[in-house]
Amino acid sequence: MQEQRIGEVIEASSTQWTTGAYELLNAPPFGSLIKAGCYDNDLCVYGLVYDIRTGSRDLGGKAMVRGGRRYDGSEFYDDQIYSEHPDLAAVLQTEWSALVIGYERAGRIIHYLPPQPPTVHYSVHLCDDNTVHRFTQHCDFFRMVLHANLPIVDELLGTAIRNAAELQANRREYELYAGRELARLLRDDYDRLRVLVRMLTS
Amino acid sequence: MPLDFNQVGQQIKRMGGDLRQTANQHDQLVTTAWTNLEQESPRWEHWARHAEENYLRSPWLLAAPAEPITNRYRLPKFAPHYCLAAVDGSQIDLDRHWAVECFLINLGLVTIQYGQQPYSKLHSVPALHYNDQELLLRDKDGRSYKMAGALVHAERDTREGIALASLAQEILATSTAPLVAMQDGTLIRWSLSGLDPWVRSHFLQRYLDEGLAALRAADVPTCSYISHPKAPEVTGIARLIAKPTLNSASKAEGIIDPYPGINDTKLFGNGWLGDGERSALFKSLSKINVEEYGEHAIYFFYLNVGAELARIELPEWVAQRPEWVDLIHAVAYDQAHRGGGYPVALARAHEQAVVRESDRRVFRQMIEQALWHARLSNGSSLKQDAKSQVRV
User: Fold this and answer.
1) Fold topology of B72-353
2) Size of interface A-B (CB pairs under 8 A)
3) Domain map (residue ranges) of chain B
């Protein structure tokens, strides 16, 4: 099955990239696995979605309150605001950041930083279950997430592990495998480990 | 050093006091002018004829009422299902200090459909002009006119009108919603008035033939929206009523204006028009409109959009169809409300068209790079270089 093309790279570095959505408000869930293309066609970069946001396309632009009462006395809120102002789809943009957690070259998945970042304006796809399953068979990417300099890494990793576990034939076995890897990586930080383990078991 | 705000502050304070005094005088003049207009309103045909006979002699701009002068109309009942085509433009003028002579016109084109199947399409179309045929206009006697300043502005205005017609035709091919074509600013090409007759005709005929005539042929209600209008044409009728023979306004005796400082915004700002109401229709009697526009002669009305008084202009073939005037009345008001006081489609068209200072810098850098790649000298003037940076 063809994986869904959801946006394109609008900013990229070796450790993270930003995707602009093709459809306003249509972003993959926090913690989803996505992949971005590179001008080196053999290479694609994997990342975990975080920091989903929607705002003005124009630098310095700011959304304003639009709901409330029309001049004919009727009221409109929420999705009606988008129907009342069809131009919003053209002036707002949904985008999100992705933390790079590996890459694929010639069919081989590698849990290290890619040789090149994703290429700006190349497509971003939402990984299907098969790809998520394949990518998360091994836990080497945990280390890259835990060491990322982001305030939400624990939530990000916890969500990614739970998403991966749901696709496993034996969920319990995968959670134990992931838990052991977390215990090894966080052996000096009991508090963080406890929070993460609680996220997996809740 | 830049502005000395200590000194400017004192001057601004003084200005505030003076303006308050003037505003009080204006209120009295508006009351008098409006009383006279109300009295003469039933004789609107007489004053329309009188204005049309005397517009050349009058020291004041005049309008010809197309109905009783103090008529006003409530906001028509309106289900907001319509499609709006809007265009705005901006330009980077030819700059003799640059390494190469060129100018750029950027048009912002906007389509927004409301009601059933809402959608929007916003885009801009830039066009760069640099060769001799584009930079020089030549009349049949071989006289040439450089495309710079007022001429680039006129070209932009002309292109806006033509682009609006093309956009409307495109929309008609795909949408069945009632369509309105709207431009920002005036439909009367005042800026052409002071130009050489051949140059004026060059721009105006294209604007009329490929713009307004094309819109008429496509049967599209067409208008323009002027925010914060300064025109004094209805006040001109009040002036004519006060000085019907125009004798005291002859040059020998000096021009005595019975309502100095009053324009139509002040006149209609007296509370006569309630929220959503529009004024009567008037025909502009500016010289260029009367003598050059023919079947496209521009009419106008004033509309209270709540936040301000707007002037809506429309060609004669629109003004003659009451259902179109009603549609434009409703759409202009609806647009102003959606846009927080100013039509949202025009604001979007402006956003698409505007060339910001940062864009100008990039544009200039791109030209310099292109010259460098073509192994041509980057001969921009030293004055320009000095202006672009502060040396300390």
Assistant:
1) archaeoglobus fulgidus dsm 4304 fold (3.30.2170)
2) 37
3) 72-353, 357-388
